[in-house]
Amino acid sequence: MPEPRTLRELRASGHIHRTVKAEIRENLLARLRAGEPRFPGIVGFDDTVLPHLERALLAGHDLVLLGERGQGKTRLIRTVTGLLDEWTPVVDGCEINDHPYEPSCARCRRLAGEAGEELPVSWRHRDERYGEKLATPDTSVGDLIGDVDPIKIAEGRTLGDPETVHYGLVPRSNRGVFSVNELPDLAERIQVSLLNVLEERDIQVRGYNLRLPLDILLIASANPEDYTNRGRIITPLKDRFGAEIRTHYPLSIETELRLIRQEAALDHVGADLPDHLVEVIARFTRLVRESTAVDARSGVSARFSIAAAETAAASAVRRAALTGEEHAVTRVADLPDIVHTLRGKVEFEVSEEGRETEVLAHLLRRAVAETFRGTLGGVDLAPLLERFSEGVQVESGALVPAGELLRRIGPVPGLAKIMSRLGIGDESPGHAAAALEFALEGLYLLRRLSKDEVDGATVYRT
Fold first, then answer.
1. Domain residue ranges of the chain, discontinuous segments joined by +
2. Cα distances (angstroms) measured from residue 279 to each of 133, 252, 283, 293, 434
3. Residues 257-291, buried b or exposed e (16+ Cβ, 10 A)?
4. Each residue of 279-334: pLDDT tens digit?
5. What is the pTM of this model?
6. Could you tell me which CATH number the domain at 7-246 has?
């Protein structure tokens, strides 16, 4: 934290006052020139969304991010605060973070007149300069802008005293970034209160003769469906935003894989999720998004694939706890559980009512088959098939431990090659069982083996 603690010391330090948008612009340009990450943690937007966002920020525009649910709009908005200066000076105790050089609220102007160059200064970190409000039908103008504080009046101040105002979320985010999530859900009469914030850069509170210039970057998010049907952004407010930027779901399977690996809390769950199963979940998510049985207007959130990965890993942890396995490794047998768990995350077409589980199970099988063809399609699995030509039947399931599954399959020549093609370097029983079970499921889906499912158990046979 910088050392100046009074206005005199701040001037002596050579500090230069910049607006929020100037801070962001100059810091963004510095990172662009240095080739440094501008929006850490954001996956899949490098060549599409981020260039538009960077242009809007360089132009000093307030903006709207428009996209379906689960596309990372809020996550992206929050990373913008990383472009602010790490520390900024404020008048000590100010509710709206006035800069010591230009105090604007009644309290700070009075204090500046009394203290002069000894005006006390404190410092705020960039993480404290972000405000956010989820637009809900019960949001009021007082929540966003401010209202009269009856407690201050009860303390003896007169009703016309500007210091009796209780500031709302927007002025309390002065000299920072403020986000309104799902802006169309905000009642139209409440949206009107933001008109002055975006154009005249000030606020009005009830009947007070109050002009409070705000230094703020306003970013809103909206869902296209809400944007046109359930709610709307009023025309004067849309006109005041400088940019409207469309977001999207991951465009490639590689991006989907990166997103799952980055966001899924697998370390917290406590199970290993092999790469081939991450790919199955990624393909499954994309198939659900593309399915004609699913309402495309609603979208399929990135949280769908993240929750699927965590649920599959949790199934492996449960098996290890019940059977005494030393290490929990996720297998194909753990995937069917995600269908029932995630059904509520998907909006289906009315014509598919009653078939939701069947549709998802079918798409999951397709995802497994596509992943199998892409990973083990060129591998010689004849030694594994020969085990079944001898009349062997292999029973598996979510509660069959890895060691028992390997015992039932028996020695398989070429297992090391199968594991290598799947990117499995660990030769533990859990990983070997995961590789072999995936191979069995792939052979079944390609109709090289048969499979019976009885009472939660799966039996592979010729």
1. 7-246, 253-461
2. 36, 12, 6, 22, 14
3. bbbbeebbebeebebbbbebbbbbbbbbbbbbbeb
4. 999 999 999 999 999 988 888 999 999 999 999 999 999 999 999 998 999 999 99
5. 0.88
6. 3.40.50.300
